[in-house]
Amino acid sequence: MNWKYVVLPLLAVGGIVAAAVTVSKQSKPVPVPPPLVPPAGSPFAGRVSGSGIVEPSSELILLGAPVSGLVEEVPVVEGQRVKRGDPLFVIDRRALRSQLIGAEARLQAAEAKYSQAKSLPKPETLAQAEARAEQFRAAVNDAQGRLDRLLAVGEAGALSRNEKPTREFELANAKARLAEAEANLAFVRRGTYPEDLKVVESEVAIARAEAESLRTELDRCIARAPIDGTVLRIEARPGEYAAAGPGAEVQMQLGALDPLHIRVDIDELDAWRFDPKGKAVASLRGGRQQSFPLRFVRRLPTMQPKRALTGENAERIDTRVMQVIYAFEDPNAPVSTGQLLDVYVEGADSEPAPAPEPPASIPPAADAAPAAPTSADGG
After folding, report:
1. In CATH, what number does 63-91+221-253 get?
2. Rounded to an integer, what distance in angstroms lies between the CA atom of residue 268 and that of residue 279?
3. Does pLDDT of 126 surpass 80?
4. Distance spanning both ends of the chain, measured CA to CA
5. pTM
6. Over the stretch 169-185, which tens digit does the pLDDT of each residue have?
7. Among the listed residues 277, 279, 325, the one whose alpha carbon sits nearest the alpha carbon of residue 45
8. Where are the domains of the chain?
9. Are 333 and 284 in contact (CB under 8 A)?
10. 3-state class of 80 per DSSP?
């Protein structure tokens, strides 16, 4: 009998059995210790839960550059409270300032021209025109007198007949000069014609509009606070280029923190159970067990895709949510904008939920693994 045909199969079978026993022992689950701090639980039995992100009551205001250019100044710091109209950051204004100087000079010239037109007639010009008219009036009288004396001589001599046309010419010339002087006197007395004054007024209005346009552009270089609020984040830095227009980067974030709001995402499958009159609390995530009562503000009328993620393994992301806005009743709640909290809303006919049991101590290592703790949001 050949023993190798008996021993080798037995050794193979023994190896297979030993390998199976080893794999079976190593594949046992590692005992999972209970959490050091129990997870936050709902105080309501029939509740609707969701995750909420803390936000300003004004919602988050994203401020961009009003015009493109280098950032000249940032007079605020993060966390500073500002009033409506306070400057937040300033874009370089040197070119506009130089243009404004020229526009203001042109405005002053136009206004001086308008004042000059309205002041007519000037006393000196009027007196000069009156004196000139009086001078030519005297010349007419003199010419008329010489002609009358010549006509009184009659046909006494040939000289009078030759001088008569000369005297008549001198009289006509003097009358013509008098008429011109009186017309000039009337023109001076009338001053500026209304039509001419309107032209000058238009020149003043154009110059004033140009200067005002440049002042407006200068003011647009200053990004001002649209509301009373708190500066939450600053991205603008002096010397950096800030672009304006669609798609430009956000330069500053602003919001009103009194009171704080929380935007809660409620799954569309639970939306029908939501009761706006029910009590609501927000709980901190992590080790600290603390809850804050909430006050209902409003509910958004449309469903939208879920965007705020909690990071849990069993979280659904291919769903739509109903967003509800609540306000913290405690103005000194230790939360910050952007913080993620668990929110529980009392449903209809709900009863207080039993208090969570204290965590059990970690058992010694054993072959069988203890049961995993039930999630606070389970069921």
Report:
1. 2.40.50.100
2. 20
3. no
4. 69
5. 0.63
6. 888 888 888 888 888 87
7. 279
8. 47-57+257-346, 63-91+221-253, 101-215
9. no
10. coil
The listed range with the strongest mean pLDDT (21-25, 137-141, 344-348) is 137-141
* Span 84-112, average pLDDT: 94
Contacts of 264 (CB under 8 A, 6+ apart): 50, 51, 52, 323, 324, 325, 326, 343, 345
* Nearest Cα to Cα of residue 143 among 176, 188, 185: 176
DSSP letters of 337-367? TT-EEEEEEE-TT--BPPPPPPPPPPPPP-S
Question: Which residues fall within 8 angstroms of residue 345, CB to CB, at 6 or more apart?
Answer: 44, 47, 48, 49, 50, 264, 266, 274, 275, 278, 279, 280, 324
Listed in sequence order, the residues at least 6 apart from 90 whose beta carbon sits closer than 8 Å to its beta carbon are: 71, 72, 73, 74, 75, 221, 222, 223
Was domain 47-57+257-346 assigned CATH 2.40.30.170?
yes
Q: What is the pLDDT of residues 217-260, one digit of tens each?
A: 999 999 999 999 999 999 999 999 999 988 899 999 999 998 89
